[in-house]
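INFO  loader      accepted 1 record
INFO  loader      residues=284
INFO  predictor   begin
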Amino acid sequence: MNTQTLLLDALNTRWDQYKSELKTCRREFSEEAVHDFRVASRRLLSFLDLLRAVIQDPKINKIRRVLKGELDDLDDLRDAQTLLADISETIHEAPVLQPYREYLRHKEKKLLRTARKEINSLKIGTLTKRIRKLSRMIEAFNPINLDAGLFPAVDEAFAVVIQRYGLIDPGQPATIHRLRIAFKKFRYMIEIIHPILEGFPADQLKRMHDYQSAMGDIQDMEVALRELADFGEQAPASYDPEPAHSYYRERHAITLSRYIEDKGEVITFWRPAPDHPFPEEKRT
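INFO  predictor   done
INFO  writer      dumping tokens
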């Protein structure tokens, strides 16, 4: 498979998935449908991030801004649903979370109503035309230039990952969050290009997912603590927030410790520089 075919297939697959999940979301609106639509939007957005590093054209940024806006509008709902799913699994061991759970359920209902209106109001006619133009642009682009620009784009994304990895401070969780954002962009690039990578390890996509999830677990605990603080400001005077705060602080410490222990795995996912071998080449 050449680079041009790879990019066209990736665009078509992600665009079809976006349309399919949007249709499902409108027909059978649910927590799962919203989640799947967000994932499809994120994967299409990641493709655009890779493409704009290879092809510099303002059309790509226009499409990207639309998708980014859609995702931003669903961020609060995503946070509430993630916390509720987590509480459902742990409520038996932490019944002190029950008032917090009810607060989040009430918030989720309001956010779902808003999200349903926003999703039903989405107009994708203009977006469809832009995607078609984007496909024609890839077809018309010189394949040699595509080949020359693809790996450097991934090298640059990984360089940002390593730079932020070097700045990690366990006492400043925001440094891990910044690494997570950069790693997510890099990981989605690898998901796109891995079919043309020789000797690509069969388990690497899963390992990258797990690495990102470990950082995501830390972020989820920080979101839980922020939401809990908001709840505390609205809760009855008789409510004591300290047991719930203590519960999440402990879990935050655990997730942070687990990530820090294995954080060095990040260097095994790509070559350190364009003139260096890939990690799998070293192993062979």
